[in-house]
Design goal:
Blueprint lengths: L4 H11 L10 E2 L6 H12 L3 E3 L2 E4 L1 H17 L5
Antiparallel strand pairs: 1-3, 2-3
Helix pairs in contact: 1-2
Amino acid sequence: MLYNQALVDELNVLARYNLTSAQEGIKVHQDAATAVIEATARLFHKGLVDHEDGGYLTHLGLETAEKVQAILTILCPEIA
């Protein structure tokens, strides 16, 4: 399976989470890009975040976000 745009959008949402604090979530506002709103809702339905508009990562979401951010660090060391 190759990455499609919907999957990339979900990965980008997970990359926005600050993994150094479990007390810090995200809020996707209604005026955000449609792709971001839809990606965040899909992450909720997959059980990775606790609200349809973002919120906090679930345990599965935290594990996934850690992997996403690790991959970004490896592939794009200049942004680490």
